[in-house]
Amino acid sequence: xxxxxxxxxxxxxxxxxxxxxxxxxxxxxxxxxxxxxxxxxxxxxxxxxxxxxxxxxxxxxxxxxxxxxxxxxxxxxxxxxxxxxxxxxxxxxxxxxxxxxxxxxxxxxxxxxxxxxxxxxxxxxxxxxxxxxxxxxxxxxxxxxxxxxxxxxxxxxxxxxxxxxxxxxxxxxxxxxxxxxxxxxxxxxxxxxxxxxxxxxxxxxxxxxxxxxxxxxxxxxxxxxxxxxxxxxxxxxxxxxxxxxxxxxxxxxxxxxxxxxxxxxxxxxxxxxxxxxxxxxxxxxxxxxxxxxxxxxxxxxxxxxxxxxxxxxxxxxxxxxxxxxxxxxxxxxxxxxxxxxxxxxxxxxxxxxxxxxxxxxxxxxxxxxxxxxxxxxxxxxxxxxxxxxxxxxxxxxxxxxxxxxxxxxxxxxxxxxxxxxxxxxxxxxxxxxxxxxxxxxxxxxxxxxxxxxxxxxxxxxxxxxxxxx
Length: 469
Hints:
Elements: H1 2-33, E1 44-48, E2 54-55, E3 61-66, E4 76-80, E5 94-96, E6 99-103, E7 111-120, E8 127-136, H2 153-183, H3 194-216, H4 227-235, H5 237-260, H6 265-283, H7 294-323, H8 330-359, H9 363-368, H10 370-397, H11 403-432, H12 437-440
Parallel strand pairs: 2-8
Antiparallel strand pairs: 1-3, 3-6, 4-7, 5-6, 7-8
């Protein structure tokens, strides 16, 4: 009988291993196989008719050529005539690689036509928008002249919330597992935050999957269930990566419980590998997916996200233990976690410095762009958090003989550190929705000559990605 039970157990283990390997291969195929070549955000490089052109008669169509391949189904072009009405034929534009074509139905209108466009890059998922203008007969006034709209703010806020929920869930999962595997005794009760973190990450990922398409197109919340936008998202790199993340969640749900019940070197290695795979899904939809040195940037961002999740989630788990009354054992757990926290901060410092050099590039861009100023704010908050944490931990070590006072001091230190880490995560989400300084600089705006009698081209970047810098 015992032999039969052993055979059955072995069979179940083999099937479980096969399932895990299959899910891992599917995730890697989706994430790595969908990666495209390095490029910057999609900017307009040529328009026909050209910006500022004055024509004798109306052309049959408008053609816009961009700097890189575009995400299919996530581009719009509108032509506003001099009378303020739509002058295109309606419907989605025709995509031809890196170009979009839209038919023109100008009738007998004479004057200035404004072409408003909004496209999404196929590689990094960022949305750019702009406007050019041409005239038929002679230039005239047009109410559409000026910068294009920034899209629906409510939809954008929902997408930001989804991104924040996703990273918060990842942090809780990773931190809870790290404290369980590295800091608690083998027979200690698990913190109990793994399942809630898993659920929050799933909700954030699904919400991001549905909100991404409407946000890139500037649509309202009524378009969350638009099948064409969802299909376009699923067909693109952003959708592939989010589906890969859901597969990883299935893997974590299948193997997470059994692994955590057997702490040891193999379990820790498996948890670290799963954390890096999760972090890779953020890197693949971050600023690292475009620009110079993409492979190195993806590696640095993956490590950056993993380290941030470990630190933030570990602090949140310690706070949960403190609120639940960790008692006299909390200082010992906190001391064990301090080694992980120190290593995480070191990784954050190295990878963050490299990313700053890549994404900012100059002192002028650091102080003269929104991305640069957010980076400075993040560095300032990080410095304050580290200084406060070091000071409070010094006080804790001075009270090592008084376990009650040491426990109270640890609780104060953990809660303060948690507040600082939360502020860092909020700043990170804001940076995700901001164009990198290397593309936000004035000389990066492309697509029109220096003399523009009609409409200037402007670049907008939608917050449509996962945490990065």
